[in-house]
Amino acid sequence: MKILVCVSKTPDTTAKIAFTDNNTKFDVNGVQWIINPYDEWYALVRAIELKEAGASTVIHLVTVGTPDADPIIRKALALGGDEAIRVNGDSHDSFYIASQIAEVAKQGAYDLILTGKETIDFNGSSIGGMVAELLDQPYISLATKFELAGTKATVTREIEGGEEICEVELPVVVSAQKGMAEARIPNMRGIMAARTKPLKVVEPIAVNTLTTVAGFGLPPAKAGVKLVAADNVEELVRLLHEEAKAF
Amino acid sequence: MSVLIFIDTADGHVKKASLEVLTYGAKVAEQLGTTAEGVVLGSVTEELAALGKYGVKKIHQVTNDALNHLDAQVYTNVIAQVVEASSAKVIVFSNNVDGKAIAPRLSVRLKAGFVSGAVALPDTSNGFVVKKNVFSGKAYANISVTTDIKIIALSPNAYKTEAGEGTAEVVAFSAIVNPVKVKVIKTTKASGEVPLTEAEIVVSAGRGLKGPENWGMVEDLAKTLHAATACSRPVADAHWRPHNEHVGQTGIAIAPNLYIAIGISGAIQHLAGVNRSKVIVVINKDAEAPFFKAADYGIVGDAFEIVPKFTAAIKKLKGIA
């Protein structure tokens, strides 16, 4: 059993969001970087749980990024996983990134590819589906549970107002979200082991991107809160009804 | 050339999100001087022709039992056939659960630039630029799509449904349908409740409620407003409420018209999941709670006293005894 987990470097959830170069670049000044939480807490930890349940399982991590992604990959390796591959490319185009991951996947012949449901910076939720299409494999998105019996996976996915349980034969691509696994933190043994785990750097394949970022912007600031006295709830109802027209 | 709109259904019914994309897609078609067409897969019990009132002229319907449940791979293949037959240049999805599964695949299949989470009509004054949410709603990006065919997945609740007059021509489309690989064995739906991502109004509560036994007043308020219920991360982690109610950076991101937060302090991770709500009301006993900075209306006080009064006042307004 070979699992490929796609991980991405993202700004910390509390990072201040600002832009430079005439609003064309994200301002990295002072930003702490983390493993995209959906990739880490749900995709990677579920892969580790599967490995803990079946010792012959091998986990590879893949990321597409420049050398400054290396500390994030080491941190992911400290949680678990046997080796990592960094494709030395940089792009905001999801097709470019998916194409690099699909190339790594083709070389490694994985039974299962796990990604987070989206990254918390670009919120694209595109990589899993794109990789699946590039590999001509089935894709289950927004998974909240993943169980394996031999080569058959039973996956629970979110639907509007409920959930759906599906069965699929491996290989498959699955995007993970809350429910899939319980978040954990790396222990000292894992951190020490991660230092010597292989981190292979490969050069990207040539890909024609499909989109470019023309610019960024920030939403207009809120006007400020209108406070209503606690003993005057009727006034809040009136404001919501007449002023905000919220109901 | 045309604009093709994916009409998403569940249990034979057209989803609310589909009405938004129909309205949006018809506007895109108008902008490009072309017509809007729709595609619907699987059995539908509703009158599809009536969707013409949202501006769609023609609807391609592919009926096949294999399409009654979503297998993104099979769906993609069928939609690609409709795209080719209708010479669609822009394809519009909702960025809902099904759109997220299908649209990225179709993007690869057609080598079509894809923008997910769009929040406005494309700017076609100089190329084709679509505004989308990034950084979990804390910013937006303008994405320039450089390919001949373009795919947009519209954020739910980002574009207002508009109904006018008109009837769509419904045509049966005969497509090659590949064998399904993802077999759906069980579907569970919370009956009678409003799905969180589709809800116009969401009532949400946090640790300030002290325990799961106190959610009755939250549910009463939600019921009165025909709203969905949600919660903060600590509440879901403590299993006071199910995980699928957790809104925030690592849970579900929502953008309702009205978000009522009760006993939630408003950590930045929580705000990231709700900051696109049009109106935010915060009820918290702590006047220093960060959530008040992101709110439109607020009450500083004890939720256990305020919420039942709030519900009663809304009932009075609505004429419910």
Quaternary state of the chains: heterodimer
Mean pLDDT of chain A: 95
Instruction: Give the termini distance of chain B in whole angstroms.
Output: 55 Å
Number of E strands of chain A: 15
User: CATH topology of the largest domain in chain B, which one?
Assistant: Rossmann fold
Runs of chain B in which pLDDT lies below 50 for 5 or more consecutive residues are none
**Inertia-based shape of chain B:** elongated
- Distance N to C terminus of chain A: 54 Å
- Strand ordering within the main sheet of chain B: 7-10-6-1-4-5-11
Please give the CATH class of the largest domain in chain B: Alpha Beta
Radius of gyration of chain B: 21 Å
Number of helices of chain B: 8
* Count of domain modules of chain B: 2
Topology overview:
The complex is a heterodimer of chains A (about 250) and B (about 325).
Chain A: E1 2-6, E2 9-11, E3 19-20, E4 25-26, E5 33-35, H1 37-53, E6 58-64, H2 70-79, E7 83-87, H3 94-108, E8 112-116, H4 127-135, E9 139-149, E10 152-159, E11 162-169, E12 172-176, H5 188-196, E13 199-202, E14 211-217, E15 226-228, H6 233-243
Parallel strand pairs in A: 1-6, 1-8, 6-7, 7-13, 8-12, 9-12
Antiparallel strand pairs in A: 2-5, 3-4, 9-10, 10-11
Chain B: E1 2-6, E2 9-10, E3 13-14, H1 16-32, E4 35-41, E5 58-62, H2 72-86, E6 88-94, H3 97-110, E7 113-118, E8 129-134, E9 139-145, E10 150-154, E11 169-172, E12 183-189, E13 201-205, H4 216-224, E14 228-231, H5 233-237, E15 258-262, H6 268-274, E16 279-284, H7 291-294, E17 297-300, H8 303-318
Parallel strand pairs in B: 1-4, 1-6, 4-5, 5-11, 6-10, 7-10, 13-14, 13-15, 15-16, 16-17
Antiparallel strand pairs in B: 2-3, 8-9
